[in-house]
Structure of HD-GYP domain-containing protein:
Amino acid sequence: MFKKVDSSQLKVGMYIHDLSCDWMTHPFIRNRFLISSEDEIRKIIQSGIHDVVIDSDKGLDVVNAPTLAEAQAETERELVELAAKPVVVTRVSLGEEMARATQIRHQASTLVRTVMRDARLGKAIELDQVQPVVQNITESILRNPGALVGLLRIKTKDDYTFLHSVSVCALLVAFCRSRGMDAELTHQAGLGGLLHDTGKALVPDAILNKPGPLTDEEFAIIKRHPKDGYDILLQSPEVGPIPLDITLHHHERRDGSGYPDKQAGDGISELAQMAAIVDVYDAITADRCYHKGMSAAAALRKIYEWSKFHFNPTYAQEFMRCVGIYPVGTMVLLESGRLGVVIEPHETNLLAPKVNVFFNTKQNLYIKPETLDLSRGLGFGGGDKIVGHESPSKWKVDPMRFLTLA
């Protein structure tokens, strides 16, 4: 049986089923293993991991601990309350913005590739090339954040490093916008998002793209990238304090378990705390060399759980309202047995977005695509309800094909 336990309850002989943290946080070769020493428990706690999932069928039990299902059900109850608060309205439809977003995605990823190459060669960042791209991203987010953010969820192992930076920029701009920040602050945050991983230019490709878990030594090299990126950006005097701060501190955590400076609580700036949430969200939803990314909906639930220790809980909740409990591009299973892809959040009820339905799970076949507004009743373009989010690989379908209807 899977149970969720506090790290302080761990004992030698327990079987770890899930370390319950983003993959760049822990120093272990595996996510699942039998605890064989007190040193392993110490490493778990020192890594800032506050709770884990154990398998009581494979190791020692914690009698009064909640089952994983009970813990997840409690999270869902809390999210239902959170979903009742209003979100920012988009200006144009997803279909209208998609073509422009596709061009911006290509333009921005090409730019980040150039920035990384220049950094590797010791050249200073040319901010006059970066500014217009951030502006284009910002304007696309203002028109419809779902288009660009949805497209940026599609990454390959070859373009992950570049598209991750573009995703963090777009998501951070959307986050700032949803929190009512002014245009200049939002632009500076976007610059920080686009440039936050510049230091990875100095990480050897063999480590950056290693098709397997990192050793302690390799992990230590990876952890140098915030300071390396900061030093690279310092060579360009026109780069302001906000992008510098985001670059240096996007891996800090509120409990002091982050790096490079072990900052804690509100000692971490507001925008660096926001960037940390966005960075982890995008990282854990992407397929990497040796692990499968989780769905956006599942990732948001992880962010919510981790916010008890690692992130500002208020910011985490605001981020969830920004992207939606079921973000654009999420595949959901409806009460009717149909599968749909979320295309737009509802203004006041994040549990009732607009979806394009395209597949019947009861008959295991594609159906004529149709747009449903789940906030409406039967006969008014709605009449269905989300049961939960689903994995596209489970049904061997590609929901992104149905983001827009022809």
About this structure: The chain has three domains: 2-66, 94-323, 330-402. The chain is about 45% helix and 10% strand. The CA atoms of residues 376 and 382 lie 5 Å apart.
